[in-house]
Amino acid sequence: MSKKFISGIIGIIIALLIGALVMILQGYNPIETYQALFQVSLFGLSPLATTLKNSVPLVLTGLSASVAFASGVINLGQPGQLVMGALLATLGGLYLHLPSILMVPILILLAIAGGILWASVAAILKHVFNMSEFISTLMLNMIADYFTAWAIAYPFMDHTAFSPMTPQIDKAGWLPDIGGFNLSILITLLAMAFIWIVFNRWTAGYEWRISGQNSLFARLGGCNIEKNFMAVMLVTGALAGLAGGLVVMAGPHRFLKGLGANYAWDGIMIAIVANNGLLGTLLYGIFFSAIQTGALGMELITNVPSEISQVLQAVLVLVIVAGREFLSTVMDRLEARRKVLAARRKPKEREA
Amino acid sequence: MNILTGLITGMISGATPILLAALGGTFTFYAGVFNIAMEGMMLTGAFFAVLGSYFFQSWVIGILFAILGSVLLALIFIFFAVSLHTDEFVTGIALNLFALGATTYLLRQIFKVKGVFSSPGILAIPNLRIPFIDKIPFIGVILSGQNLMVYITVLIILLSAYLIFHTRFGLRLRAAGYNAVSLDSSGVSSAYMRVLSLLICGIFCGLAGAFLSLGYVRLFGENMSAGRGWISLAAIILVNGNPWGIALISLVFGFFDGLGLLLQGYNVPPQFTSMVPYLATLIALYFYSIRTRKSPLK
């Protein structure tokens, strides 16, 4: 744990230094820029609340990817599952008119159903036709993207708007702020706690983890690989769908054009950086959200385009992952050298 | 007749970028590199092509820039995956993200626009008119007058097939993927072969990117590769890397791409016609899975 923590911190520092170098080359002041970036995203109650609210889709899609990858399922379909969840929740919010206490849970269930629905397409393709989920989820992402773009441009379009979007959902479906913090943060933490218990304490979670580490061992040990695959696919789809629903219910309260594009690969990116650890996913999700949230404010204060946050994120991913693997290779080599030295010393001791 | 030639031309222009990227990827496929960075390399190539063409007023420099940009990405891949032994899947995904972020950032920095940069100052790759052949009715329209990059692509198919299957280089390349340890023990570094394969992939993906931004359009748009790198990966997997198979399957994808464009003329919403190539990939995967199930070897 501490080793992971140290290599993460070192990676972040190196990545921020590389980012600073880029800024210097472009003629910006890196210290001012970083100061502005974290000032708008972390220091103070309201910036922190915004960062946490924005971290909801990142953490949830990150958890989805982490659980999938750690279970040996290459579900790259979070973007598609997210927009389908968002679409279903939006439609529920447009056509249902119930009191808030019923509306919110129903919309959340609809979002989860949307994610499960889209993940199940890939799961069925794998189960029935043995088609690799790696490519099929990617293709389904593009299809979901175009499908939702059509849905908000034709049948469910808000005709008073200038760009494709749906009308706002019923106010009863809006997630309220509690003490400045949006309710979606609490729901995310609950989902995180639930998935942590399933993954680390339940038999099912144990079987998933074992299948991810050694699928042959898991099969010989009596795990039903196919059943586990389906379960992981659907659970991770549910998480991504939930992310989409919460984005709509907490933020714009409608399905805007390009809603999914903002979170396209973020979940996968965060899972990779966190090495598929659930707690790490939560922390990195909040950290990446701080960078994204801060970038917008930074642009207003310092003239540095907010797009630099995308460069910064990719550098972070590369440096942290490479640093981690490099560190473990160096550790292995040192270990080997120590063993060699010890082995050399032994005969001499015997001679003496 | 017009619809048919339009469809065939659309098929060729749709197939070319996928084909070029897939041919690059097939070198890494044979060298045993799990390379999923074609998408990012193509996007970087497309951006640098516009950069070179716009600032130097020459499509040749545009193509050279595209290759440079794409190879730069390949070099980063080499540094992380070959030198530092970072996981190839992770490196590829991070590089795709990096390419998307960097091109979006540079688009904003250099051209001061968000989304799309298009200008009459960008010079496109010209079409090539072949004398005599263009006089032949029907076939002439298809064989002649295509973009120069299309003819280069045809040459690259021939070159790739020859390099991979008929030269010592190709033998070593395949050995690196088939059994890296035995290649190393025979005195040829398998890491070196992987580096070469990635550089070749970088060059071809650069060409693919140049065709995207300087072929039939003269613009760069954010994320304009739009999943073509992934389709080319699917194409490689479907035919186990064979260059001729890749050519065939890219034409099939190109056909559906062209069909999508054609359907737009019949009041089908553009979102549905844009889905067609991805649906085609899924259908192709379906046929692949049936074939592998029937084959006794698997």
What is the element layout, followed by pairings?
The complex is a heterodimer of chains A (352) and B (298).
Chain A (H helix, E strand, L loop, with lengths): L1 H24 L4 H12 L3 H26 L7 H18 L4 H30 L3 H21 L23 E2 L2 E2 H19 L1 H11 L1 H6 L4 H26 L15 H8 L4 H25 L5 H44 L1
Antiparallel strand pairs in A: 1-2
Chain B lengths: L1 H29 L7 H19 L2 H25 L4 H24 L4 E3 L20 H5 L4 H19 L1 H11 L1 H6 L4 H25 L4 E3 L6 H11 L4 H21 L6 H25 L4
Antiparallel strand pairs in B: 1-2
Helix pairs in contact in B: 1-6, 1-7, 1-9, 1-10, 1-11, 2-3, 2-4, 2-9, 2-10, 3-4, 3-9, 6-7, 7-9, 10-11, 10-12, 11-12
What descriptive keywords fit this protein?
heterodimer; A: 352 residues; ABC transporter involved in vitamin B12 uptake, BtuC; 13 helices; 2 strands; globular; B: 298 residues; two-stranded antiparallel sheet
Give an account of the 3D structure.
In chain A, 52% of the residues are buried. Helix content of chain A is 77%, strand content 1%. Chain A has 352 residues and is an all-alpha fold. With 298 residues, chain B is mainly alpha-helical. Chain B contains twelve helices and two strands; from the N terminus they run H-H-H-H-E-H-H-H-H-H-E-H-H-H. The radius of gyration of chain B is 19 Å and the shape is globular. Chain B starts with a helix and ends with a helix. The A-B interface holds A 26, 125, 129-132, 135-136, 138-140, 142-143, 146-147, 149-150, 153-154, 261, 265, 268-269, 272, 305, 307-315, 317-318, 321-322, 325-326, 329 and B 76, 80, 84-87, 90-91, 93-98, 100-102, 104-105, 108-109, 223, 226-227, 230, 233-234, 237, 269, 271-272, 274-275, 278-279, 281-282, 285-286, 288-290, 292-293.
